[in-house]
Design brief:
Radius of gyration: 12 Å
Number of helices: 2
Order of helices and strands: EHEHE
Shape: globular
Helix content: 25-40%
Strand content: 15-25%
Distance between the termini: 24 Å
Number of strands: 3
Structural class: alpha/beta
Length: 80
């Protein structure tokens, strides 16, 4: 597998299940993360687990999205 350290991944459905597991695996590989989903509290919990493992994650709940389906300013800044 190639080196993913420092790369950025945007994970949808990151508050539970496969999305949360993917977030933790990517954090373990040194990636910086943007976590999206419907439930902000669960996203914050996953972000806390990422931080405990030395990773970096920005939480971007679906409420950050505009009516046109475009992400807001959270995309303009890198996590971390």
């Amino acid at each position: 597998m190639r080196d993913l350290k420092g790369k950025v991944a945007w994970i949808t459905g990151a508050g539970s299940g496969i999305g949360a597991g993917t977030a933790l695996a990517y954090a373990g590989a040194g990636m910086r993360l943007v976590l999206s989903g419907r439930r902000e509290a669960e996203l914050q919990q996953v972000a806390a687990l990422v931080a405990q493992r030395g990773g970096s994650a920005r939480v971007a709940p679906w409420t950050w999205w505009t009516r046109r389906g475009r992400p807001r300013s959270c995309c303009r800044r890198r996590p971390g």
